[in-house]
Structure formats: structure tokens, C-alpha cells
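Section 4.2 – Deliverable D4.2 (structural model, holo form)

The reporting period included a commitment to supply a predicted holo structure for the target in complex with zinc ion. Inputs used:
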Amino acid sequence: MTFKSTRNGFLIAISVIGLLHTFFGISLGWLLLPSTICLALIIYGSAVIQSNFHAQAYCYANVSEKEIALSFDDGPNREYTPQVLSTLAQFNAPATFFVTGKNIEGNENILKQMDAEGHSIGNHSYTHSFYVDFKSLQGFKNELDRTTESVFKVIGKRMKLFRPPYGVTTPNLVKASNSLNYSIIGWTIRSFDTTADTSQTITRRIQTQLKPGAIILFHDTSDKTVQVLKQTLNFAKENGYKIVSIEQLLKIDAYE
Ligand SMILES: [Zn+2]
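Output (C-alpha cells):
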């Protein structure tokens, strides 16, 4: 099910209803049915990145080894990103940080540390605005360009991984991302680490869903995530999982 097939199905359905109305006099009220189904599919497809409704997003990898990847969105955060980095260092685990462009100024040293310690950095838009999904094609390109340029100024590398804010994909976002050659990265396991759940609940949620090839979504924006990360890394170690970078898991490039 994709945006195109939904649109085509909708066009066929309204044409058939139009013909039935013309020749057999059925009520045009029947138009409500395909309209409602089409709208519901578009909302679902835009909100659920795993549906690949608008875009082919990488959400997991088919792997033969017990390999998983970690990702952190919405940083850099002056208080919590350094704590995440030191936990990752203790476990010798790489990660990908999908940074929000507006958070970079003043936190350049954190980006340098991520890069120096072997982590990769991805694009998570510039503003992460609640209204970002209503942007025009050019508006999206600006969101991507501004963040990539900000990161380039600090580490001298141009990012190629993009995680859409809120995991929402729209036709304009996908067009902008494709025209600038980004790989759209989703996730397999959403930790929900920004909710009110306790670190134990969040950790258990991750553990029950963990499987080879999984990409876990965290946010480097709270102390709770640091606790969850420690517990998750211990669990992964005890169960023979190896932490690899997203680009290694998916066999793609993080930078141009
Ligand atoms: Zn985000």
C-alpha cells in the first residue's frame, strides 16, 4: 500500500460512483466511503514510518548475526548527550545521533566528541517544528540543508542519513529528501523514553522486542534515557548482541 496506489484506487472508486450515479441514479453520498478510506490510509501512512507509504525508509536490517543499532534523536543536549556518550564509551558501543539543527549552536564540542569517538551524525531537520510536515518542498530542503551545513562546519562531513521529525513522512518531505540524496532512517523499536513511563518499563519494552537487525530509537534528552541505555547495553551484552552502527547494519553510507 503506497500513496500512489491509494490515490489511484480513490480515483477509480469515484469514477465508478460517478458512472453509477449517471446511469443508475445511485446517491452521490457513496462518495463518502472512498473518501473516508483514502483519508484514513493517508493519515496512517504518514504517521507510521514502517508502513513505507510515502517513502522507502530503512527500519531494520535482514542480518544473519545478532547485530543491532542504536539511535538518539533531538540532541545535541548540553546536559544529557555527554552522559550518553560516556555510557556508550564504557560499553564500546557506536551509535547514530540524529541532531536537530537549531540545537547545534553552543554545542559544537559535543558534535566533535561524537565524531571523534566513532559515532555517526544524521539529520533530524533544523527546527523540529510541530508544523514541519506542512512545509513546502523548498521549505523541507531548507530544513535539511541548514542542518547539514551546520554539521559540516563543525566536523567537515556532509550527512546522508535523515530521520524525519516525529517519524512522519509526507510527499514534500520525501521529495526533498530524495532530491538531496538522503537515506530515510526509521526504527524497529520505539523506546518511548520521552513518556512518563519508568526506566524499568521502558527497558522491559525494549527487551521484549529485541531481535537481530533491530534499530532502537532513543532521545538524548533526559536522565531516564541514560539509565535505560545502561540497562539495555547490559542486556544486549548478556544475550550476545553486538552493537554496530546504523550504516554498518544497513550497509549504506552515513556521509557524502
Ligand atoms: Zn525528534
